[in-house]
Specification:
Layout: H1 13-25, H2 30-45, H3 48-67, E1 82-89, E2 92-98, H4 104-115, H5 139-151, E3 156-163, E4 168-173, E5 177-182, H6 183-195, H7 204-212, E6 230-237, E7 240-245, H8 251-255, E8 267-275, E9 280-281, E10 286-290, E11 296-299, H9 305-323, H10 327-339
Parallel strand pairs: 1-3
Antiparallel strand pairs: 1-2, 3-4, 4-5, 6-7, 7-8, 8-9, 8-10, 10-11
Helix pairs in contact: 2-4, 6-7
């Protein structure tokens, strides 16, 4: 498979030291800036039709190479933690992993060095090598990694979802679930971090996270604890406990609807279900769209492992609040009552 070619450049060491020092204050490096300038030169000089041809060749080679890679890993026995990436561009998805631990600031720095502060079309196969290793993974293994991130964070140190189509970056906080930010807000936070007057070593990540405070946004596939609240009584339907979810968040951003507007009187009802027999949150939400003209339709929304984990926590807390019992105990009591034989009338 073809790959990147290293170019050799020369600069006096004193000049290089000075330039490196200045760029470090900006949260980037000489190599990152030079790589960005080289990509610009390529885009400016190579005709668009030839760029498209080259992109097609790269993607074709990459697809062939990816098919031959191992997708199964013994996650439980791994000594080092993994960092997992999901990259989406033009509706296409790629999943990668690194056998090391990365944090959000490291990823943000790399992303900014790759994209810069300008608008450009990222090429999926040109995503910097810092975002992947020689081990691409499939969708099934990615889902397993999501679940393991919530259950055993020592095994999966971080998960990053880079969506270039929506210009979003999502990551997983084990206590909160998904956190999603616009890439623009990520870049603003990076710049604020390195412009800060506080230069204490090891505090960059804290400054960065503080700069992101309040910038979180709703996103499809990334429901977090901040979007989950329940109302009304817990009901039982065919072995499922049914929880009515309050829709006090941007449901249009999450479900792709158009109800958060004055242009129509459409409404949305959302329910999450818990399977009492398996002790698991059901794979899909019930999302019922009620049109102003009286028509009704269902909106499909499949939950990923992280969303199911945070929903389970919220369900358990709400069940204790409503019934005084844990979700597990309440389910066991309900199933026991359902299985009990009917009482015989006394004579």
């Amino acid at each position: 498979m073809s790959g990147d070619v290293q170019l050799e450049l020369w600069l006096h060491e004193y000049k290089l030291d000075a330039l490196s020092s200045v760029l470090a204050e900006q949260g980037t490096t000489v190599a990152e800036r030079m790589n960005d300038m080289l990509l610009r030169l390529y885009e400016e000089q190579v005709p668009p039709e030839l760029q498209q041809e080259v992109r097609g060749r790269i993607q074709s080679e990459y697809a062939s190479w990816e098919e031959g890679q191992t997708t199964e890993l013994d996650l439980e026995q791994a000594e080092d933690p993994y960092t997992v990436f999901h990259v989406r561009e033009n509706g296409a998805d790629r999943f990668f992993m690194l056998e090391c631990s990365e944090n959000l600031l490291c990823v943000a720095n790399t992303l900014q060095g790759f994209l810069g502060n300008r608008s450009r079309e990222p090429a999926l196969t040109a995503v910097p090598k810092e975002f992947y290793s020689s081990k691409p993974i499939g969708t099934e293994l990615y889902e397993r990694m999501l679940a393991l991130r919530m259950a055993k964070p020592s095994k999966v140190a971080a998960v990053f979802d880079l969506d270039f189509d929506r210009q979003e970056l999502s990551t997983i906080d084990t206590g909160h679930g998904w956190r999603t930010y616009s890439i623009r807000d990520i870049f603003i936070a990076v710049n604020q971090t390195y412009r800060s007057k506080e230069k204490k070593p090891g505090r960059s990540l804290d400054r960065f996270m503080s700069s992101l405070e309040g910038r979180q946004r709703p996103s499809a596939g990334h429901i977090s604890t901040s979007e989950i609240s329940f109302a009304e009584e817990i009901s039982e339907i065919d072995g499922l406990l049914n929880f009515y979810m309050e829709t006090n968040f941007d449901v249009d951003a999450v479900f792709g609807t158009h109800v958060c507007t004055g242009e129509n009187d459409d409404t949305l009802n959302v329910y999450a279900n818990y399977d009492m027999a398996s002790g698991q949150v059901c794979d899909e939400l019930e999302v019922d769209l009620h049109r102003a003209d009286g028509c009704e339709e269902s909106v499909e929304y499949r939950l990923n492992a992280v969303e199911k984990a945070v929903l389970l926590r919220k369900m358990d807390a709400y069940c204790q609040e409503q019934t005084g019992q844990t979700l597990k105990d309440y389910s066991a009591q309900w199933m026991a009552e359902e299985m009990a034989p009917p009482t015989q009338p006394t004579m």
